[in-house]
Amino acid sequence: MDWHLLGLSFITVFLSELGDKSQLAAIALSGRCNSPRAVFFGAAGALLLTSLLGALAGGAVAELLPTRLLKAIAAVGFAILAARLLLFNNEEP
User: Fold this and answer.
1) Where would you find the membrane-spanning parts of this chain (predicted)?
2) Domain boundaries, the chain
């Protein structure tokens, strides 16, 4: 097992999930129920399942497409999202 990759993945996901809507939902659910342990196991199981599905899908796509093309697709996708957020913001201040 690649311990460096394991640690990097853990730190990245941990930091990105702090204050996420999933965490806020878990806080709200555990505050209103008598079994916060059930909320923890439900939320942890859901996060594990979605992470597993993401890793499996990423591995399958990486088998089909070269890494350079995947990076280019991701870069273009993020650039489009950034442009839409910056240029086409329809909310009034």
Assistant:
1) 38-62, 69-87
2) 3-65
